[in-house]
Amino acid sequence: LFATSKTIEEDGSYDSQFETMELYKAEVAEDGTLSLPEDAEPVELEWDDMVDEYDNSSYPNGLTNPQIRGGKLVGSIYLDSGDRAIAVLDVEDGSCTLIDLQPDDECYLNSWCFYQDGSVLLNYGHYTNETSESVLHTLNLETEEEAPLCTVTGKYIYSMVYDEAKDTLYFACNGELCRMKGADASTIESISALAVNNGDGQPTFLTD
């Protein structure tokens, strides 16, 4: 992703104005380096509804945990209202759909990952002096319908990834790598220690 902007000078003051957000397809060499083909044509993405304005300047909001599947670039994003939404961008024509989220009271979006049948899994945190919960919802990207899945009590979940073949959710929690089978919180078990305490917001992937 590349953002372009222009700088405007007026009376000795400089303001930055966001112009476009473009998506390029890069090539990965055998040594892992990335390069852009000489004839690479960018796809201009609809970003007008994801721009912050401050005084005379404007800046694009960034996607959290951006991932591509099925020709769609998906990520969570902050809106001007301060609320979070899921942005779904078509990598062919650049069109964008913003899906407003429906968290329960006092919940906020911690993380998300791809889930089953064209849906994503949303992880809402609900933390008070009396309660520590991770509330999991499913969100269908086609119908934009959101539904509760399960609640995990006493754990702070982040960096989720779902294995559809095994119907198993892997996630980081309290310095450990854990897994949960199906949507049954009673099956949660630790399978490894983690060297990092928090990787929230970073893309997480399954490998062979």
Could you say which structural class the secondary elements and strand pairing correspond to? mainly beta
- Give the helix level as a range of percent: under 10%
Q: How large is the count of helical segments?
A: 0
Q: What general outline do the C-alpha atoms trace?
A: globular
Low-confidence stretches: none
* H and E order: EEEEEEEEEEEEEEEEEEE
Distance between the termini: 27 Å
Percent range for β-strand residues:
over 45%
Cα radius of gyration in angstroms? 19 Å
Overall pLDDT metric: 87
Main β-sheet description:
4 strands, antiparallel
Number of strands: 19
Strand arrangement in the largest pleated sheet: 8-9-10-11
Structure description:
By secondary structure, the protein is mainly beta. Helix content is 0%, strand content 56%. The protein is built from no helices and 19 strands. The protein has strands at 2-10, 13-23, 27-28, 34-35, 43-45, 51-54, 57-60, 64-69, 72-78, 84-90, 96-100, 108-114, 119-127, 132-140, 146-153, 157-163, 168-173, 176-181, 189-193. The strands form six sheets. It has a four-stranded antiparallel beta sheet with strand order 8-9-10-11, with no helix packed on it. A four-stranded antiparallel beta sheet has the order 12-13-14-15, with no helix packed on it. The protein has a four-stranded antiparallel beta sheet with strand order 16-17-18-19, with no helix packed on it. A hairpin with a 2-residue loop joins strand 6 (51-54) and strand 7. The radius of gyration is 19 Å and the shape is globular. The two termini are 27 Å apart. The mean pLDDT is 87.
